[in-house]
Amino acid sequence: MKQKKIPMRKCIGCDEMYPKKELIRILLDEENRPVIDKTGKLNGRGCYLCNKPECLERAIKTKAINRSMHVNIGPEVYEELKRSLSDA
């Protein structure tokens, strides 16, 4: 029997490949603010992060979210992302 292919994505914090379902997807909404896509089905280009807080900190420090989304993100948005990741 054929093995089902598991889609892999790279975490922008630690640059390691993980199965897509294990990562958290971040994308831009209509107002160009990053939001967490809990369903994984929202329209738009997204980036992926591990569930680890150190990956989010590393992505903030290296401005990886800014680069992957091609948008300048302010510190208040990062705080909102930290809160929503801790709730998820």
Describe this structure in words.
The model has no long low-confidence stretch (mean pLDDT about 85). The longest helix has 13 residues, at about 75-85. The protein has about 90 residues and is of the alpha+beta class. The protein has a single domain (about 10-85), classed as YlxR-like (Hypothetical Cytosolic Protein, Chain: A, 2-Layer Sandwich). The protein has helices at about 55-60, 65-70, 75-85, and strands at about 10, 15-20, 25-30, 35, 45-50. A hairpin with a 6-residue loop joins strand 1 (about 10) and strand 2 (about 15-20). The chain is built from 3 helices and 5 strands; from the N terminus they run βββββααα. Strands 4-3-5 form a 3-stranded antiparallel sheet. A two-stranded antiparallel sheet has the order 1-2.
Q: In order across it, which strands form the biggest sheet?
A: 4-3-5
Mean pLDDT: 86
Percent strand:
15-25%
How many E-type strands?
A: 5
Overall geometry comes to globular
In terms of quaternary structure, the protein is: single chain
Low-confidence blocks of residues = none
Give the ordered list of helices and strands.
EEEEEHHH
The value of Rg in angstroms is: 13 Å
Distance between the termini: 36 Å
Helical residues, percent: 25-40%
**Topology-level CATH name:** Hypothetical Cytosolic Protein, Chain: A
Sheet having the most strands: 3 strands, antiparallel
Total domains = 1
Computed structural class: alpha+beta
Named CATH architecture: 2-Layer Sandwich
